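INFO  loader      accepted 1 record
INFO  loader      residues=399
INFO  predictor   begin
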Amino acid sequence: MAAELPVRVVLDVTAVPDRPVGAGHYVLRLAAALARRDDLSLVICSRASDRARWATLVVPSDLLAAAPDPRPLRLAWEQVRLGPLLRRTAADVHHGPHYTMPRHAPVPSVVTVHDLSFFEAPAWHERSKVVYFRRAIIRAAREAAVVVCPSRTTADALAHWCRVEAEVVVAPHGVDTVRFRPTEPAPGADRAVLAALDPRLGGDRAALVFVGTLEPRKDVPSLVGAFARVSHRHPDALLVLAGGRGWGADAVDRAVAASGLGTRIVRTGYVGDEVVPALLRTAAAVVYPSLYEGFGLPALEALACRAPLVTTSGTAMEEVAGGSALLVAPGDVAGLADVLDAVLDGAGRDAAGERRRALGTAVAARHTWEASAGRHVGAYRRAVGREPGGTVPGPAASR
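INFO  predictor   done
INFO  writer      dumping tokens
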């Protein structure tokens, strides 16, 4: 029997910012994993100014660096110009990994819907984004060949808010276990990296670490408030807020000012790839109190580093952690304070904590980018009719 031809996919990476977070990391890691496969022919469509970042993944003829930089122009370009461009690529399928798909595409579209926060909590976003992305998600649910969701939580939310006529594939994110691993590159390397970031982080002070964009859904003000409640019992402990300012970050400023703990709250701003694993490995606990996520990649990265993880119950992070995290109800400042107090007393390193950390390492080991890419290839093949239909469930460990 002759081998099947590889599926030729155009991956739209035009929404990945210069400093990627969240969905941007997903696109970067997925693109790299797809480029390594021999059952896929990958074409990358990027912004004209972003050619260098993607040039190593595909041959020059398969890099379409054509989109403009400004967001309004880029979104208009996708709707008006991308469709005709696809006709010249001999593509089998188009993948829009950030909610949107072009109009009048000559091939089936696969669309990633990361979460439904534009419906469930519109106050967390700028009004213009809410209007645009609600329409984009509704359209994807009806018109895409396949919608990819990173968790069962997100797939269920999509079915709740939209009339879903597309097939739905649950494809959990992966974690880069070369970068995110329990051991540091060399003895003392992590402390050296952190001391260069901020001198307060170069010693042995216990640090509670948050990594992510400072935006309303992350609920960092509740974390600051919880830390303030227990700070007197742990006078040497630090709270590290590692992430760039997002929309609504003024609430974090107010919470820090009200806490009176400015010298014990380390605000790093956006941190580079070499810093995040060091922060996670050395943390007394990684605290991810987000009110809502579509997946929660920082939680998975913490597990891969064997860090004690504190996150919120009833969310995609609980789904991802699979029993390996300490859970607190979203927005419960008093409950979060109790857990932080216990962690700083050593609860993350006791026998029960060690069992959770071992389980977390096993969870992270199952979430590879190769496995995620395989599920995406399955979605592409369904989109072009090369595999039987039907909603694809996520792995049992992620349900």
